[in-house]
Specification:
mainly alpha, about 210 residues, Arc Repressor Mutant, subunit A, Tetracycline Repressor, domain 2, 9 helices, 2 domains, about 65% helix
Length: about 210
């Protein structure tokens, strides 16, 4: 490995340390309380090092969002998506939940840190692609008569909102904090099914 390649690898390693530390601090200490100096101290580097990689806090936040949503997109892009659009929505829903529960800090920062949104310039391309997978499946389900007719954008947002709600609860609540018992073992599956059920096309009932 040449000097240039080694320096580039070291630069990427430092950048990753910065992003990981920032994500952890935002999740544990609160977004407003974390400064660039605090992040530098956490990884035992000077603040100047942070600014060598990120222009300012806005740039750091945008980079965090872009990285985390790109990881989510990768989790949603299964190698063999199901041909049936309704079954594909099930696949996407379960993959989304698995990602959020496996990476709680990533998920909390990306979707559960309200203060950061004033610093994010726009939805990243991976974010648009991730949501586009759900919307495309909804559009196909409508076209094939599996879903009732409706606005696919709204329907995709409803499905996403349902999933976000259950993932957020499972991340933030301990088993003893759930009312009258812990979360049901198949809660995610039931939420996915309930969202789908609400959009299924139903034949008109015959009057007796």
């Amino acid at each position: 490995m040449g000097i240039t390649e080694r320096r580039e690898r070291e630069r990427e390693q430092i950048r990753k340390k910065i992003l990981d530390a920032a994500r952890e601090l935002f999740a544990t200490e609160g977004y407003d309380r974390v400064t660039m100096r605090r992040i530098a101290a956490a990884i035992e580097y000077s603040p100047t090092t942070i600014y060598n990689h990120f222009e300012d806090k806005d740039d750091l936040v945008q980079s965090l969002c872009d990285e985390d949503v790109a990881r989510l997109l990768g989790a949603l892009q299964v190698k063999a998506p199901h041909a049936d659009p309704v079954e594909r929505i099930r696949q996407l829903g379960r993959a989304y939940a698995r990602f959020g529960l496996a990476h709680p800090n990533h998920y909390q920062f990306t979707f559960m840190t309200p203060q950061k949104f004033e610093y994010v310039r726009e939805v990243s391309e991976p974010g648009s692609q991730a949501f586009g997978l759900v919307r495309a499946a909804v559009e196909e389900a409508i076209a094939k008569g599996a879903f009732r007719r409706g606005d696919p954008q709204t329907m995709a947002q409803v499905l996403w909102s349902n999933l976000h709600g259950v993932v957020a609860l499972l991340i933030t609540l301990q088993p003893q904090h759930w009312p009258l018992g812990p979360a049901a073992p198949k809660l995610v599956d039931e939420v996915v099914e309930n969202g789908i059920r609400g959009f299924l096309a139903r034949p008109a009932r015959r009057k007796r």
